[in-house]
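wait is this the right file?? whatever heres the structure
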């Protein structure tokens, strides 16, 4: 829809330049013409190439050009609020009114084909666990095993994740909901591309909006960057409590990193203990058998 203020400002500039409007249709121009006798209707043509203001060569207009500002600057701009998320996003309000499990089921059945990974995946790996859980655990993307089964963290890294959660008293079936930034496997387990992350984030952010976790555990760099909107290294992001839209969130090394290199085990264990302390401070207690 045409922004009336923007349109008026545009016409004001055109008048200062003694330029007719070449962009908008004659019908729209007629509305404005009542106020502006200077616009000559006979030269108004629909949708022709717009002369750029800086290149305009109306007679006698050169001296005025310097004082002109781009049209968008004539409209008072709202102050921009900096929100620390990777993607600006509003969830579908209808989903937020449904029981959590039903809302997640609806999303799962809807599926997704917003990026090219839907052409190479075997299964859409939406997430698993308890829709009513107080904790969300977010990884990077499904691997081969997850792609086969349609469930997150069921391969080797999944077995490591189960141990990590158990170590701090959490049972992956009841105490958490597990999801990934990408819901489809990138071929050859390559790193997710930015375009894939951007296409997929609304699904993850909707999941968070539905589940409303009291705490989030982010596994590895990709999840930390995508959710926190940060580009800092894991070394910098770990061991602190971050805020995702009011939800305390912590970053730990990805379970696959622990499988690749034992050097990550000690810092990961320290971070998991900090996460457990955070949970206790929030009154959240896991149900894993000791
Ligand atoms: N790695 C991830 O980040 N997610 C999975 O689901 C499996 C492995």
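ok assuming it is, sequence goes like this
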């Amino acid at each position: 829809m045409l922004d009336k203020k923007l349109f008026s400002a545009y016409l004001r500039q055109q008048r200062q330049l003694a330029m007719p409007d070449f962009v908008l249709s004659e019908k729209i121009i007629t509305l404005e013409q009542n106020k502006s006798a200077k616009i000559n209707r006979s030269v108004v043509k629909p949708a022709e190439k717009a002369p750029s203001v800086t290149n305009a060569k109306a007679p006698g207009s050169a001296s005025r050009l310097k004082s002109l500002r781009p049209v968008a600057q004539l409209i008072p701009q709202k102050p921009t609020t900096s929100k620390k998320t990777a993607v600006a996003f509003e969830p579908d309000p209808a989903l937020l009114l449904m029981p959590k499990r039903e809302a997640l089921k609806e999303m799962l059945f809807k599926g997704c084909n917003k990026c090219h990974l839907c052409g190479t995946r075997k299964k859409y790996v939406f997430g698993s666990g308890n829709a009513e859980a107080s904790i969300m655990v977010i990884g990077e993307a499904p691997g081969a095993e997850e792609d086969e089964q349609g469930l997150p963290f069921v391969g080797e890294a999944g077995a490591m994740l189960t141990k990590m959660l158990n170590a701090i008293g959490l049972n992956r079936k009841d105490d958490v909901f597990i999801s990934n930034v990408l819901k489809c496997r990138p071929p050859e387990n390559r790193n997710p591309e930015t375009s894939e992350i951007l296409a997929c984030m609304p699904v993850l952010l909707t999941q968070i909006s539905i589940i409303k976790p009291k705490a989030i555990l982010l596994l590895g760099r990709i999840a930390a960057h995508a959710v926190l909107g940060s580009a800092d290294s894991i070394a910098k992001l770990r061991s602190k409590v971050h805020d995702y839209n009011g939800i305390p969130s912590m970053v730990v090394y990805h379970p696959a990193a622990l499988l690749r290199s034992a050097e990550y085990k000690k810092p990961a264990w320290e971070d998991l203990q900090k996460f457990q302390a955070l949970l206790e401070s929030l009154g959240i207690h896991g149900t894993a058998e000791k």
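The CA atoms of residues 257 and 263 lie 9 Å apart. so i think its the right one actually
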